[in-house]
Amino acid sequence: MSQPGIPASGGASTGLQAQNGAASASGSPYTNGPVQNALMSSQVSVSQGYNSQLPGSYPHLIPAKTLNPVSGQSNSGGSQTVSPLSNYQRPGQAPYGPPVASHPGTPSLRSGPSPQMPLPTSQNPAATPMPSGSFLPGASVPSPSNWQYNYLSQTNHCPRASSQPTMTGNTNLMSPQYVSSGDSSLQNNFIKSGSALPLANPPLPTTFQPGAPLGPPPTGGPPPVRALAPQKLTPRTVPQPSFNSTSNQEGFWSYKFNGSMFTLFLATSQPTNKNPTMSRSVGYSYPSLPPGYQNTTPPSTTGTGIPLSSLNYPSGPQAFTQTPLGANHLTASMSGLSLHPEGLRVINLLQERNMLPSTPLQPPVPNLHEDIQKLNCNPELFRCTLTSIPQTQALLNKAKLPLGLLLHPFKDLVQLPVVTSSTIVRCRSCRTYINPFVSFLDQRRWKCNLCYRVNDVPEEFMYNPLTRVYGEPHRRPEVQNATIEFMAPSEYMLRPPQPPVYLFVFDVSHNAIETGYLNSVCQSLLDNLDLLPGNTRTKIGFITFDSTIHFYSLQEGLSQPQMLIVSDIEDVFIPMPENLLVNLNESKELVQDLLKTLPQMFTKTLETQSALGPALQAAFKLMSPTGGRMSVFQTQLPTLGVGALKPREEPNQRSSAKEIHLTPSTDFYKKLALDCSGQQVAVDLFLLSGQYSDLASLGCISRYSAGSVYYYPSYHHQHNPVQVQKLQKELQRYLTRKIGFEAVMRIRCTKGLSIHTFHGNFFVRSTDLLSLPNVNPDAGYAVQMSVEESLTDTQLVSFQSALLYTSSKGERRIRVHTLCLPVVSTLNEVFLGADVQAISGLLANMAVDRSVTASLSDARDALVNAVIDSLSAYRSSALSNQQSGLMVPFSLRLFPLFVLALLKQKSFQTGTNARLDERIFAMCQVKNQPLVYLMLTTHPSLYRVDNLSDEGAISINDRTIPQPPILQLSVEKLSRDGAFLMDAGSVLMLWVGRNCGQNFLSQVLGVENYALIPQTMTDLPELDTPESARTIAFISWLREQRPFYPILYVIRDESPMKANFLQNMVEDRTESALSYYEFLLHIQQQVNK
Ligand SMILES: [Zn+2]
């Protein structure tokens, strides 16, 4: 029998590293054979087809409007599109090399001269109708192709950027755009050890602290200041220095200048859920003035009220002392590492098996000068798999590690600088937003760090609102914060910002009523109705369906809601469209009436059929004019009308890695999702079903519309109370969290790098423009990149994501994150800077695609080969003396462990009886979750909790939170006289040993002896004992850190849940999977071949 967990030797293509291509041609020492050449060539042809179609079928989606038109940038559609067709090139592109000719498949997505921030052209439904038929191969979904590529490229081809939308059959998941980002460890980077550990919304790095923006410029001191000729002064409207602090609509404080050139305010964008006071404990007062505000002595003013300081500014360009970013900012290549000698260690994993740190793993810190690094983006928001970027694709190919970014762009932040300015300063060539990593040639000119164009500093930008000093462009908040939000002026809108629109679509078939979910959901809605993000424009509506579709008129003035039934599901129409989506404020009482009566209305129903497809069509029609969020609750397989599905799961094949249905059985849901995307509608799917519901097909409705999927298997209001609790908690978060509407996101990177594959829930509108009808703070994204042009002349590269969205208050805003990383020339440096969590997260995304496009076993092989290939590369190229054993660089010491954990993760495991929908859901999560949660579900954290103490505890809001060490996931670490808590992300399991101390049993569990622990226990009693307080504080703290609600199970030896607990013991052997040590031996054998 073949070894579980081990790829068949000589298997075909395996590696996941598409972009790294090179080596694995036949004859290479690696196990991945010559791979998919056939596929590659077919891809190329597809791409060609695609390219030719693009211009024709897509023009309406290409941003029609240019912000600040400048020659060379205006027709930016070209560089945004996936296909680097020559007819799409803009003049500005030329210098960067013709992407097209040389690599037919290469994504044009050059970071450099790229397009300006996309205007969501399709926002105006009238103006840019999204023809539903246009989503054809090629035309519409460029990105999918990319996805395929990932896996393919084991060859030397340059990253084929994948432009080629192979959209082969829309039915495959591969286009899935799912993602992850974030990271589990960032936390400590920004928090002193011993102090606070990761919070749900940890404070941003120091650069985000109130005082940061006032800090010294990245380099050099302030420019010499000279008095200016008075006459130059007069025309300038220098803002009055008087501040007024006001609380604005969003509930945060802003400090405005009276004057008006611009307004800068520090917004405290509070997470909507969780206790807002959390931030206080970590030192942020709310609202707080940055020290700069507090300490600045009131400027003496002239009679005119103009601050004296503003009189002193340099006239014209002059020598500017900012040290150029670059060599001076890089520590000598190895010297930075000398601070962490551990980092240089080479480890023999066969000898040092316990490499798991006892505290959360921290992301590596890029080897940058501290002046730059302190301005860098928080890795929670923006992270790269390689913190040292290889200078050529050849070098990247050698390393055999995937290059990509993981993003959590809309994460709730405790501190977020928000700038309102009449001018948003951007590169005139590539439209990059000015950021901390640009260089100022002098006071009047700055050089773009992405395309290197020299730009003028606009007049308004010369004034620093924080210091109230003129002539300090380099101290502006935009240049001092890697994460910042702009209030967008009107050029960023094609239509007035849309109102928040919420439509709820409820399954009310017999099966649905039987689960009792409607009660919970309606009650949650009633409880949170006033907390829905929005304003006086907020609209709400409801649709229910079984074999027919029911609408509810909530017109103001009615004495009660009116139900309208449409039984023609073949050709759905909307009765009285104007009264079905109503203003929440004006019709609140009717809405409340409806929510109170809805659960009772169908209690006697005998209707078992489900016309989900037609109901979704109706909901889409209703929302088309405005866009908004559609929340769909479904409890079974749809059986009637369009989108009806058939059962496909064969239980006896569940454990096999082959022949399982991971691809959609119809493209109906995907097509409808793309229609939704075109009208700025996102669909969130809540699946509450005990039976197979074909999530592989249904999930497409959310995947392509930028929605989310929630899954509550076996939901039942009586039989499964913990699911009820979970749904309630998660709904509360869902209903009240921040939301952005009609959003688009673009990621740019320094010239020479190229982004080619996107993971996450969205639709790729053009090359690199992600269409996000809704954006939520709990979604993560990932992208893969390649080095398209040598970076030998570059010491630093930057990545910038810009998310343009409409807030629930109707403001158009742009959230920008910029990450800066060093470029290196040796393989050793590449390995030293590897971020193993980000690599594992990206590989997981790639493996989901691979599972769908090829097979689960292929994906598993590819994961294993990713480890073998990179460690082989390290051994043969970077390791000087060939020792025996399994030698790994310190940075990758956990790589085999994390990959083994992925193989045992629900998405990729074999040999278990995992239900198909559960596996699909796990895959959805891989794609859509920020990295930090993905890592937790993959490699759970295990703690001993029967002896919690205050040693090393952190304090939050007067609560003391114990911080027990993290243990290896092996039964060796368990003992029968203890109690152990496993945090697996969405579930917490507390295993209590048979001989657990009496103290823990009575003081924490509240039972006299072991035998009295209830068979089913999902809550800890709150006892008046320090042990109870500590345990509950710890568990609550873990829960507070995530947007979903992990259920707690207390597990005794004989409990049925024990198998789940043991299943997560990644290092142990199971019936179907290798132990960690066996896995290491296998890797070693392959590496040393
Ligand atoms: Zn530029």
- Helix tally equals 31
Roughly how many Å apart are the termini?
A: 22 Å
Based on secondary structure, the structural category is alpha+beta
CATH topology of the domain at 501-649 and 661-737: Rossmann fold
Which percent range fits the helix content?
25-40%
Question: What would you report as the Rg, rounded to the nearest angstrom?
Answer: 28 Å
Give the SSE map.
Layout: H1 37-57, H2 77-80, H3 99-102, H4 142-152, H5 186-190, H6 230-233, E1 243-247, E2 253-257, E3 262-267, H7 278-281, H8 291-295, H9 308-311, H10 335-338, E4 346-348, H11 370-373, E5 382-384, E6 389-390, H12 393-399, E7 404-407, E8 416-421, E9 439-442, E10 445-447, E11 454-456, E12 463-464, E13 469-470, H13 477-480, E14 483-487, E15 501-507, H14 510-515, H15 517-528, E16 539-545, E17 549-553, E18 562-566, E19 582-583, H16 588-601, H17 612-623, E20 628-634, H18 668-678, E21 681-687, H19 695-698, H20 700-703, E22 709-711, H21 721-736, E23 740-749, E24 753-759, E25 763-766, E26 769-775, E27 781-787, E28 796-807, E29 812-824, H22 827-832, H23 836-853, H24 856-878, E30 887-889, H25 895-904, H26 916-928, H27 931-938, E31 941-944, E32 954-956, E33 959-961, E34 966-967, E35 979-983, E36 987-992, H28 998-1005, H29 1026-1040, E37 1047-1051, H30 1058-1063, H31 1076-1087
Parallel strand pairs: 6-29, 8-14, 15-16, 15-20, 20-21, 21-22, 36-37
Antiparallel strand pairs: 1-2, 3-8, 4-30, 5-7, 7-27, 9-10, 10-11, 12-13, 14-29, 16-17, 16-19, 17-18, 23-26, 23-28, 24-27, 25-26, 28-29, 31-34, 31-35, 32-33, 35-36
The structure holds zinc ion (ZN).
